[in-house]
Structures are given as structure tokens and as C-alpha cells.
Amino acid sequence: MSQSPEKPETGLGHILVAEDDVVAQMVVKKIVEQAGYTMDLVADGQEAIEALEVGQYDLVLMDCLMPRMSGFEASAIIRNTESPDINSKIPIIAMTGLTEEEDQQRCIDAGMFEVVSKPFGPEALIPVIRHCMSKNEGTDAASKQAEVEDTQI
Known about the structure:
This protein has helices spanning 22-34, 45-54, 71-80, 101-109, 122-152; strands at residues 14-18, 38-42, 59-63, 92-96, 114-117.
């Protein structure tokens, strides 16, 4: 597991990738870094939760089927956590070979924002990352604006 407690100053955003397959890790790493993002890799859902407790991330790319703790379980925990160390609203994108409609619905039900089907290339993954990050930034900006308005009343 490679993670850093501080968010790097360079790049478009810092992404946590939870993926157990070494080949898939290499593919995602190349796509994400070539697009200008920084990233850390973990091998299962439990490691993803641990990384989110100590690191600062803008988005999570989550494989659904991993040993020890699946992406479904990890996403549900992230969404339902009361831990002050984990951002329960962080965008999570499912990366999965499960292509049935009910599988994709299971991803959404677990709290994942979007689903990208494997195998994928940059043309499929990067627009989804950008969309989720921009949607998340808008939410943060809106909530900060609401806080300012509340204090002015």
C-alpha cells in the first residue's frame, strides 16, 4: 500500500485507487497519471478505508470484487461512517467487470457515483473522473457559500 498523509501540491487532483489485480493497477496508474492526476494504490476495501482515514483524496476509484473487503462493502462503510477522518461524500467510481444492470445498480446502491466497465481506456475513465470531481467541487463550493450566508444572517 502506498499512501501519503498530505495531499500533493501538483496535479489536477489526488485519487485513491482500490484494485487487487496488478495488471489493472498498472493500467489505471498509467491512465490517471498521464491525465495529470496523482494517485495512491491499495489492494482491497479495508486498505481503502484505512487510507481515507489518514490521507486526503479528491476521488476514489473502487474495484467491486476484491479479497478481504469488497468495493461494495467499503463504499457502504465510507458512506455511512461517522468518523471525522473520512469524507463520507467523496466521489467513488466503481471499476468493474460486472456488466449486468443489477450489478451496476448494486454499485449505485452501495454509494458509488458512477460505474466504469472493465476493460476501459482513458476515453472511458477520464471523462467520468472529471465529471465526478467537478460535481464534488460544486457541492463543496455551494456548502461553503451557504455557511457564509448563514453567518451573515
